[in-house]
Design a protein that fits this description.
This protein is α+β, with helices and mostly antiparallel strands. The chain is about 50% helix and about 10% strand. It has a four-stranded antiparallel sheet with strand order 1-4-3-2, with helices on one face. Strand 2 and strand 3 form a beta hairpin. Helix 2 runs antiparallel to helix 3, helix 6 runs antiparallel to helix 7 and helix 6 crosses helix 8. The chain is elongated, with a radius of gyration of 24 Å.
């Protein structure tokens, strides 16, 4: 069901210097059309600032539990995606206000963190020792050491990880069945390493990435402040 709110008064005729811009909120629940003073902000600044709100730093996927996917991974592809994303981000012409300049820098920090974490993870599939020399090899993240240990240690760590996962899994019996099937397969060591890399190593370093929280930063609210008048607002209702 759509709830349409139209805020359009006869007295609110756009004056010279006003331009309109339409956009969706970050959660996609509302669609705005509003006017802004183009003597203060240019059309490109408004458009680029909106791009900053929704800038995607996900990059190339580097985790899998399927051994067949390993050969499809490419460090070069990740490098190219990062290079392209960084070029786009650094050239965004956001409105020249302290808040938005700060968010742009935070997005850049986020992109760099994601890239560095994903690159070292990709390298580890062919050279696990790369993890030992990374900044992520800390006391709180011992998976670098585990993934460079003997088979017995790796299998033991996989078992412990599986037991922890079962505590928060809606179908622990299915998780146990899947574990047993992989444990008894000819590729059990590959399965063990992929499980530890995806659910152990990656989950641990992912928590260190300086992600931009759009709700904590109140990006939607601050973007709306750039406009002088809301012309229309259309929102989905629960």
């Amino acid at each position: 069901m759509k709830q349409l709110i139209i805020i359009l008064l006869f007295a609110s005729v756009l004056v010279a210097g006003d331009k309109t811009f339409s956009w969706n909120t970050i959660d996609g629940m509302c669609y705005y059309t509003a006017s802004y003073d183009d003597t203060i902000f240019s059309e490109k600044q408004i458009a680029d600032t909106y791009k900053l709100l929704n800038f995607d730093t996900f990059l190339y996927n580097v985790t899998t539990t399927n051994p067949e996917n390993i050969e499809k991974f490419s460090v070069q592809s990740l490098d190219q995606e990062y290079k392209t994303a960084k070029q786009v981000l650094t050239t965004l012409e956001v409105v020249n206000l302290p808040f938005w300049n700060k968010i742009k820098q935070k997005r850049l920090n986020e992109l760099n963190d994601v890239y560095n974490a994903k690159r070292i993870t990709l390298l580890s599939y062919t050279d696990p020792k790369a993890l030992l020399d990374s900044v992520y090899n800390t006391e709180s993240n011992n998976y670098a050491i585990i993934l460079n240990s003997d088979d017995e240690t790796i299998l033991g760590a996989w078992y412990k990880l599986k037991e922890e996962q079962k505590k928060n899994n809606g179908s622990p019996e299915n998780l146990e069945k899947e574990y047993q099937e992989k444990l008894n397969s000819p590729q059990k060591m590959i399965h063990a390493k992929l499980q530890l890399t995806t659910y152990g190593w990656w989950n641990s370093i992912n928590s260190t990435i300086r992600y931009v929280d759009p709700y904590e930063e109140k990006l939607d609210e601050n973007f709306l402040k750039l406009f002088t008048k809301i012309i229309s607002k259309e929102c989905d209702t629960p």
